[in-house]
Amino acid sequence: MDRGPPPSPYGSRSRGRSGRRRAPTHATTRGGAPTGAAAGTGGTVTADKTLALLLKGYAWLPGLRRDHPGDGPLRTRLMGRPVRVLHGPEAVAFFYDERHARRHGALPGPVLDTLFGRGAVHTLDGTDHRARKTLFLERLTEPAAVGALAERVREEFRAVVGGRRGQEVHLFDEAALVLARAVSDWAGLPGGDRAATDRLARDCVAMVDGFATPGPRHLRARRARARQEELLSRAVIQARESGAAAADTPFGAVLSHREADGSLLDPHTAAVELLNIVRPTVAIAWFTAFAAHAMSRRPDVRRRLAQEGDRGAYAVSFAHEVRRFYPFVPFLGALAPDGLVLDGERLPHGTMLLLDVFGQNHDPELWEEPYRFDPERFLRAAPHRDDLIPQGGGPREGHRCPGEDVTVAVLSVLARELARLDFAVPDQDLRIPLNRIPTRPRSGVRLVVGA
Ligand code: HEM
């Protein structure tokens, strides 16, 4: 039985264990081939937990794991399906081995119609996935391209904030506009005037904000996606007809990308994948609001960021710690192929594997004092591939997020800009509710910029 959510890490500080980072000892999987070993001794929850997830949000899975401890994967049910919960770096490696986890058919329709789009790279497996993934890897991991996007973000941020001296700024909203303008320009999206780009920003925020919750937020998210897919599909058709797109931009790359069978992307799928570059870049607004939250709580961290030069390592460590500490992605899902054996158990048909992202990023077995915001931890040691998983794990060629370099570079730039800005934080509600997915500081972080 659930005993309520675990205490929020965003009100109190420093509840974790002290001491050095410990080696992970509790990974829950032993590989995909039948092992013949005794079934794992993970907790079992027989009731369907969909309602509990909707009510408890980020606190649901950590609470369930705490209340049903065991060595093996926790067994539960969601949306009528059997579920096994994976947790820990070894489990991450297991989850990202494509023999163990299928993406086709794993994501519910309401998530596809809001967050990712039908036919998105997230839903592909095998050679189809590998071919589509090159489109993203070639454009999003090249250091000069990443640096150029981060530089555009810096210029936009200075332009917006420079014009607002003496005024109050709603950081979350302004960051979304800054990011949308920068990424549209960088990606070579055709012809959007300022009003169209700002609309794109608001639509991208709506797609992320409404994917996980039934009701008006979800309807807004659906409308936002439908509108932007329509606009971008038309832009793709026009650019192909006129041959106008610059080949060296992400827009040009999407237009000329070839699938595993040699075909071009149809206009709708091209629009979906363009949005899979623009939307998550705009979503860095969530981390920007969290960064300001961290600076408001920790003036020492803000001072150090402000003092550091433009190439210093502290801002990068800060960006990693924001991604680790604050709640964004709660967990990831995939379907177990028929016959998969996990910890000695042959899984029932249609089992969903859930990778516990938020829980792992706060696991005291992996992180010294996990509830302490401490950018220094990443100065002492760079993050291990399968330990820090706010954007997925495993190798990049798998389903791991191809936008991690962009996220870290853009967030580092925005953190430095914010830290150097003369601003005050007026009285407001900065609490971060854990029962809302995705969450953010309630006020969106209002700042008064120095005159
Ligand atoms: C706001 C920060 C971001 C977060 C929290 C985030 C998180 C994630 C997560 C959790 C995944 C799924 C991994 C999986 O399915 O196993 C993912 C995949 C993906 N992300 Fe990100 N991401 C962010 C930024 C970005 C950026 C900036 C881009 C592009 C510019 C991007 C593009 C993608 C794409 C295309 C995929 C699909 C990869 C695949 O299925 O192979 N993301 N992201």
Automatic annotation (TrEMBL):
Amino acid composition bias (Low complexity), ranges on this chain: 25-38
Key words of the record: Heme, Iron, Metal-binding, Monooxygenase, Oxidoreductase
Segments for region (Disordered): 1-43
Keyword Metal-binding tagged: yes
Superkingdom field: Bacteria
Heme in keyword set: yes
Compositional bias (Basic residues): 14-24
Homology family: Belongs to the cytochrome P450 family.
PANTHER family: CYTOCHROME P450 26, LANOSTEROL 14-ALPHA DEMETHYLASE
Name of this protein: Fatty-acid peroxygenase
